[in-house]
Amino acid sequence: MTKKVLLVCGAGASSGFMAAAARKAVKKLGADIEFKAKSESEIGEHLNSVDLLLVAPHLKYMIDDVKEACEGAGVKYGIIPQRVYGALDGQGLVKIAMEFLEGGEQ
Predict the structure, then answer these.
(1) Contact 56/81 with Cβ under 8 angstroms?
(2) Distance between CA atoms of 4 and 76, rounded to whole angstroms?
(3) Predicted confidence band at 12 (pLDDT cuts at 50, 70, 90)?
(4) Taking a C-beta distance cutoff of 8 angstroms, is the pair 76, 106 a contact?
(5) How far is 55 from 39, CA to CA, in rounded Å?
(6) Residues ≥6 apart with Cβ < 8 Å to 68
(7) What is the CB neighbour count within 10 angstroms for residue 4?
(8) CA–CA gap between residue 12 and residue 18 (Å, rounded)
(9) Whole-structure pTM value
(10) How far, in whole angstroms, is CA 103 from its chain's centroid?
(11) What is the pLDDT of residue 27?
């Protein structure tokens, strides 16, 4: 079953580039993961349709709110490492998402 990952940033632009890089990497790696990107203001609208929420590193200040919302919805969550986000490392993001989805630390 395809796992759904939502990436969020301030306005959805940089996470959109990150999601595009991850989609390319998914094809190369053969992972069964779907990535989409939204702005942080849209989290509540999409939380019930995803398995994992990954937050851009510059939004780590809001992780407590994200944690509360995700735990209430039964969704895993995490912060994208700056080295992955800054480099638009699609393969790195896919690997991180797989670790979270397989039960890694939040």
Answers:
(1) no
(2) 11
(3) confident
(4) yes
(5) 10
(6) none
(7) 17
(8) 10
(9) 0.93
(10) 15
(11) 93
